[in-house]
């Protein structure tokens, strides 16, 4: 292979710490492998004396395979070489792995140093999620029990009335940020100190001030530039009448810029609040379009200044500092919670012999550092041994490392040998969401050239992947928008991509040509379907949003395939016709978009496959198998059982299921199956036999489930049902079978934990789903399958394709990180709100505003790198697609810099971008081929040619929505009814119209059951009859209006699921309203019933004894303190001292709070019910039932009514006692001898 000079330098340089900045497609992996091979072949070292760290397992496997192939090639040239043969043997034990695999190896060899069980295993994410949830719930329960005021206030400030989930998220987020630090405990402990400001402190002393000042200056620079542009525009358009006001605007902005030089914050604030804009007026007759050219940009300037006033200068400095101090207690609580969670989480993992990826890094660091030294990064004996072992430490994808990994590498590399060889490209650092720290690479990139001869930086800028026209377009774009001030990087000559050897000539058409930029204008997409419009416009009306763009992509791909172009096949070394597999469509996020794109591509007869990370539990075959497992666990579940019966496993048709259900409407579905075996069953013989066969299989599988593990059970079900083979014959059968294998693998993984059994496995799956922690479907796509790939930009990293379509470029950047409840930053710490609970106020602190500004800037810088990765995947053709509304107005902003002489746009302009199209179009508008954008904007400004030496070409198309058509032309003989429906026209009537109307107007004869509840409590029935009696007696009605009946909740309405004919929900009064307020009769009745249930009859039942038992109930939290105080022990003691109370104590058998339920004839209580077979479900709770020595049953019910008139009380509760008696006699088969109401209000007894 012919190496470039830069590549040779990277390959051959020795005894220097090297940083290789390898641009996309520069052959960095080939350079790394060649360096390894040369060191081995030359005899410098053995392959197992090199430490090679890669980013993924796939990259490590590829690296190992490449080294093996190179060694085999060298062995072919030097047959019989003992050294090369030895290297092949040593390769199997060579340290070529991911960082985590290296850490795991270190831990396994030194587990005793950190007191770790050597049988530890790496936990999967779902298992860890469940453990985290359990630990968090336990931790918060402990804190709530402790009743610490600072903690309770923290929960009020940051929690939710719906639960503690938001607090859990805060703790977890802070925990994982801490884990990316070499010493997370120290980092967490230091965070609250930033808010502990002394009395003499100033904002300038805080870590947030430089960030806030930079944010303010960026906004002011933007405003100053815009005022200058408006003044220039006024002169160019002969609008001198605007110049005085515009000059005053410029002076105002300049005064604000000068104010930022003042050292005192309140002096700056005074200037900002004194800023007032003059009124912009135009002479009469001035064209409205001319007015808009000045008024709209000026309004944006005014809004930006107003936003700064509100964001940073709404309060004086002492108030801002007071807000920061006020948040300190909450931040202390949060950090303490996180530290405690980390300790408990670690303890649980240790108990279960589990580790996660963070543990691998931190345990390895713990082993490699000398804990006894004051220098935290002093190497231990183990690290010193590794330094002696490894003659060179090679790191691939160095830009994606974090602080912990950097610390590990620093302990393993040997400073004396100068043996670090790091390869990466900071322009491709797109894993900030995984807490990668690109600043580590940037620091070395900037400092290595200045550190002397022992440090070397090599720039690999030659690209061996893409056609020159693609590289020149990428260079043209990023030279303008990748600016160091806000985008963190400078796209200079060293960063630019230079083409390697050109593609060979071809005999037919190729993909060589300009980069395509298609902008779909959605302004007219809602106007389709009007009279006189074409069929294409009607199609466009049906396509909206991303679907419209997806259809345009499908049409463009068809054009590409029909053009007969050729692509260069690297494997074959020549050209061939383009195929679907040569095309990839890249999206920033596939969620919600990949499905739309897939559907439209498939409707357009384009084979496609999308790589997504969710949807596993929604796959039909998975849902059927989980339903079957649920039925084996508990057959009395109608929905899972119906799913299994209707599936190919059960083989029942819908009509058969309906017949089964109607045969036993009062039973559940499983009971219906059991009754099918009854000879008296009215079911057909065929259906009875079918049910019997299924029941026999079910019994066999349930027996098997008790004897074997879940994986064995699942595979046996596949064999017995044939379902695995069945789904293999369906469309997408390979994928479906892979999903079923994944289910078995998931069960096997689960049984490696400390849990076993089908029940626990199903609960595990339920909990995963409830936490919305879905799995990705199985991937069965082969490399050579002829389909269009759809994937995220992150998934495409490291890959390349002949044709790349980058879609959805008009989607706004996701900046939700800057709007979280609590902002967290590696360097700036925490960004909290200030909450004033007393005034129900919450507003951002100075820290939060600064941290938010930094997060927005860093996120947009990362989005810039994501765009770079997306564009550099293309080998021969690059198509860019985006859509949006108001493109003309947006184009005016894109064309702001066409007259700018400098190559790069201002820092603030790059930061102001809202989507990828903003960057692309700002750059493309300055190109000679950007006429379409300049025309769309209506700009009259003269373009400055900044690309005289850039050979790139662009094809920019503005695509009206109406021109995007779905598929080919419509057939002339299309069904007229479908056409009419499509046009929303009234359909003609038919001779069946009357029959259709009759069917649709059908009303069921409810036979008086329309207002009858299916389930009632005894108390609700009693209330219903009482209401009817009161309605007949107006005096009683007036009495009931002023008197409250206290037995509402104290009777059987304590049962869950209360229902009535016309029910009004009565909510319990909130705690803050109950404080200092007397208990209602209902509440008091409920408390007394609870006391009478829990009183221990074997203990002292005098007033003193009852007092003691009440205290015990309060200690056990059966009663609240306020409830405890309300209970009068004397009345309870009097009851137990009464003859009835003594009989109860001496009873042979005693039941307290005895629940029951019955089915009774509905017409007994609802005369309007016409069907005598209709029944209602009655439930209740009997206070006391006891059986005496002679076998007699005594029924006793407590009442707390203030009205103790025996006659009225007996009448009021007659129905209730009657129903209780009937229930007891029907269930126990014994007669009730005596029935009593005991009135606790005056200790009287009413015999019933």
List the helices and strands and how they pair.
Elements: H1 5-12, E1 17-22, H2 28-41, E2 50-54, H3 57-77, H4 82-91, E3 95-98, H5 99-109, E4 121-122, H6 125-146, H7 149-158, H8 165-179, H9 184-190, H10 209-236, H11 243-259, H12 265-274, H13 288-312, H14 317-351, E5 354-355, H15 357-368, H16 381-389, E6 392-395, H17 403-412, E7 420-424, H18 439-447, E8 455-460, E9 462-463, H19 468-481, H20 484-487, E10 498-499, E11 515-521, H21 535-542, H22 546-562, E12 566-569, E13 574-577, E14 583-587, H23 594-603, E15 608-610, H24 620-633, H25 638-646, H26 654-663, H27 669-675, H28 685-705, H29 710-721, H30 723-728, H31 733-751, H32 758-770, E16 788-792, H33 793-796, E17 801-806, E18 823-825, E19 829-831, E20 833-836, E21 841-844, H34 846-871, E22 874-884, H35 887-894, H36 907-911, H37 916-924, H38 931-937, E23 954-960, H39 976-982, H40 993-1000, E24 1015-1017, H41 1018-1031, H42 1034-1042, H43 1071-1074, H44 1081-1094, H45 1103-1115, H46 1121-1126, H47 1129-1137, H48 1139-1145, E25 1149-1161, E26 1175-1187, E27 1193-1199, H49 1206-1212, H50 1214-1228, E28 1232-1239, E29 1244-1247
Helix pairs in contact: 1-2, 2-3, 3-4, 5-15, 6-14, 7-14, 8-9, 8-14, 10-11, 10-13, 10-34, 15-17, 19-37, 22-23, 24-25, 29-31, 35-37, 35-38, 41-50, 45-47, 47-48
Structure characteristics:
1248 residues; alpha/beta; six-stranded parallel beta sheet; 50 helices
Structure in words:
The protein is α/β, with parallel strands linked by helices and 1248 residues long. The chain is built from 50 helices and 29 strands. The chain has a seven-stranded parallel β-sheet with strand order 15-16-14-17-22-11-23, sandwiched between helices. α2 crosses α3 and α41 runs antiparallel to α50. The radius of gyration is 39 Å and the shape is globular.
């Amino acid at each position: 292979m012919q190496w470039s000079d830069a590549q040779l330098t990277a390959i051959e340089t020795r005894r220097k710490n090297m940083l290789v900045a390898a641009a996309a497609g520069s052959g960095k992996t080939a350079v790394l492998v060649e360096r390894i091979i040369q060191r081995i072949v030359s005899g410098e070292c053995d392959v197992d004396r090199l430490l090679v760290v890669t980013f993924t397992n796939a990259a490590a496997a590829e690296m190992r395979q490449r080294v093996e192939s190179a060694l085999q090639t060298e062995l072919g040239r030097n047959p019989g070489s003992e050294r090369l043969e030895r290297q092949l043997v040593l390769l199997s034990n060579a340290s070529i792995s991911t960082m985590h695999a290296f850490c795991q190896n270190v831990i396994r060899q030194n587990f005793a140093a950190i007191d770790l069980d050597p049988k530890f295993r790496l936990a999967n994410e779902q298992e860890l999620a469940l453990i985290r949830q359990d630990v968090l719930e336990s931790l918060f329960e402990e804190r709530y029990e402790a009743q610490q005021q600072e903690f309770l206030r923290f929960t009020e400030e940051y929690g939710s009335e719906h639960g503690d989930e938001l607090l859990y998220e805060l703790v977890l987020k802070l925990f994982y940020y801490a884990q990316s630090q070499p010493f997370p405990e120290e980092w967490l402990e230091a965070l609250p100190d930033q808010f502990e400001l002394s009395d003499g402190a100033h904002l300038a002393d805080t870590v947030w001030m430089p960030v806030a000042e930079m944010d303010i200056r960026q906004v002011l620079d933007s405003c100053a530039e815009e005022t200058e542009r408006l003044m220039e525009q006024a002169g160019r358009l002969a609008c001198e009448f605007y110049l005085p006001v515009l000059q005053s605007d410029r002076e105002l902005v300049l005064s604000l810029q000068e104010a930022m030089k003042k050292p005192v914050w309140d002096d700056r604030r005074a200037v900002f609040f004194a800023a007032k804009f003059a009124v912009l007026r135009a002479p009469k007759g001035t064209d409205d379009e001319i007015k808009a050219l000045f008024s709209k940009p000026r309004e944006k300037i005014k809004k930006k200044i107003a936003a700064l006033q509100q964001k940073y200068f709404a309060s004086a400095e002492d108030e801002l500092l007071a807000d920061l101090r006020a948040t300190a207690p909450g931040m202390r609580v949060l950090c303490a919670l996180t530290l405690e969670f980390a300790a408990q989480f670690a303890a649980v993992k240790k108990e279960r012999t589990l580790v996660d990826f963070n543990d691998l890094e931190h345990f390895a660091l713990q082993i490699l550092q000398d804990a006894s030294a004051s220098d935290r990064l002093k190497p231990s004996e183990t690290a010193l041994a590794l330094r002696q072992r490894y003659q060179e430490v090679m790191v691939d994808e160095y830009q994606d490392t974090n602080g912990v990994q950097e610390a590990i590498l620093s302990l393993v590399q040997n400073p004396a040998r100068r043996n670090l060889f790091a390869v990466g490209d900071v322009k491709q650092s797109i894993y900030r969401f995984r807490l990668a720290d690109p600043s580590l690479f940037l620091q070395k990139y900037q400092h290595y050239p200045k550190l002397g001869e022992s440090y070397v930086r090599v720039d690999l800028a030659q690209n061996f992947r893409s056609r020159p026209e693609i590289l020149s377009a990428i260079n043209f774009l990023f030279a303008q928008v990748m600016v160091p001030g806000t985008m963190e990087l400078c796209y200079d000559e060293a960063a630019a991509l230079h083409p390697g050897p050109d593609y060979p000539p071809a005999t037919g058409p190729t993909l060589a040509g300009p980069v395509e930029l298609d902008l779909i204008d959605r302004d007219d997409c809602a106007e389709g379907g009007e009279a006189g419009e074409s069929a294409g416009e009607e199609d466009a009306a049906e396509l909206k949003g991303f679907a419209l763009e997806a259809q345009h992509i499908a049409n463009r791909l068809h054009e590409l395939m029909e053009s007969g172009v050729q692509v260069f096949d690297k494997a074959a070394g020549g050209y061939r016709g383009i195929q679907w597999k040569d095309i990839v469509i890249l999206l920033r996020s596939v969620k919600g978009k990949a499905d739309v794109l897939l559907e439209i591509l498939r409707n357009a007869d384009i084979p496609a496959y999308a790589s997504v990370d969710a949807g596993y539990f929604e796959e039909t075959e998975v849902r059927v198998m989980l339903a079957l497992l649920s039925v084996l666990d508990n057959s009395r579940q109608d929905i899972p059982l119906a799913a299994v019966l209707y599936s190919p496993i059960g083989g029942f048709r819908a009509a058969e299921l309906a017949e089964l259900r109607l045969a036993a409407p009062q039973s559940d579905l499983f009971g219906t199956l059991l009754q099918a075996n009854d000879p008296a069953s009215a079911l057909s013989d065929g259906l009875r036999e079918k049910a019997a066969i299924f029941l026999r299989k079910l019994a066999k599988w349930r027996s098997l489930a008790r004897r074997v593990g879940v994986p064995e059970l699942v595979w046996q079900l596949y064999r017995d049902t044939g379902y695995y083979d069945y789904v293999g014959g369906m469309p997408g059968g390979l994928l479906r079978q892979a999903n079923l294998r994944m289910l078995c693998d998931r069960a096997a993984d689960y049984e490696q934990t400390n849990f076993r059994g089908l029940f626990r496995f199903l609960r595990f799956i339920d909990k995963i789903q409830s936490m919305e922690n879905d799995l990705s479907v199985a991937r069965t796509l082969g490399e050579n399958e002829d389909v269009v790939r759809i994937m995220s930009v992150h998934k495409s990293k490291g890959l390349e394709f002949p044709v790349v379509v980058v879609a959805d470029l008009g989607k706004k950047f996701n900046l939700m990180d800057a709007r979280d409840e609590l902002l967290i930053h590696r360097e700036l710490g925490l960004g909290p709100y200030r909450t004033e609970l007393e005034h129900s106020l919450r507003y951002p602190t100075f820290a939060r505003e600064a941290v938010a500004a930094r997060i927005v800037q860093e996120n947009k810088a990362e989005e810039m790198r994501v765009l770079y990765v997306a564009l550099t995947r293309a080998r021969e053709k690059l198509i860019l697609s985006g859509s949006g509304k108001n493109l003309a107005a947006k184009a005016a902003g894109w064309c702001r810099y066409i007259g700018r002489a400098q190559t790069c746009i201002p820092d603030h302009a790059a930061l102001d971008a809202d989507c990828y199209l903003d960057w692309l179009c700002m750059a493309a508008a300055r190109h000679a081929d950007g006429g379409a954008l300049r025309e769309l904007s209506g700009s009259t400004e003269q373009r400055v040619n900044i690309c005289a030496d850039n050979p790139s070409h662009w094809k920019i198309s503005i695509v009206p929505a109406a021109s995007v058509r779905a598929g080919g032309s419509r057939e002339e003989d299309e069904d007229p009814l479908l056409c009419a429906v499509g046009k929303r026209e009234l359909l003609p009537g038919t001779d069946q119209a009357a029959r259709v109307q009759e069917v649709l107007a059908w009303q069921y004869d409810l036979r008086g059951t329309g207002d009858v509840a299916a389930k009632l409590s005894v108390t609700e029935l009693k209330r219903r009859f009482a209401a009817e009696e009161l309605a007949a007696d107006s005096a009683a009605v007036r009495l009931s209006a002023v008197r409250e009946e206290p037995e509402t909740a104290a009777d059987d309405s304590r049962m869950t699921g209360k229902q009535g004919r016309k029910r009004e929900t009565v909510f319990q009064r909130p705690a803050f309203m109950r404080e200092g307020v007397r208990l209602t009769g209902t509440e008091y009745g409920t408390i007394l019933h609870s006391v009478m249930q829990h009183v221990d009859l074997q203990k002292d039942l005098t007033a003193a004894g009852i007092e003691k038992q009440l205290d015990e109930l309060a200690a056990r939290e059966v009663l609240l303190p306020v409830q405890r105080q309300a209970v009068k022990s004397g009345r309870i003691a009097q009851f137990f001292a009464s003859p009835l109370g003594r009989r109860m104590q001496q009873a042979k058998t005693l039941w307290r709070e005895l629940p029951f339920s019955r089915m009774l004839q509905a017409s007994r209580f609802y005369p309007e019910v016409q069907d005598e077979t209709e029944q209602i479900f009655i439930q209740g709770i009997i206070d006391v039932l006891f059986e005496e020595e002679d076998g007699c049953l005594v029924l006793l019910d407590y009442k707390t009514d203030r009205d103790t008139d025996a006659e009225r009380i007996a009448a009021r509760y007659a129905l209730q006692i009657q129903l209780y008696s009937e229930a007891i006699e029907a269930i126990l088969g014994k007669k009730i001898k005596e029935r009593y109401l005991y009135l606790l209000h005056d200790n009287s007894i009413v015999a019933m």
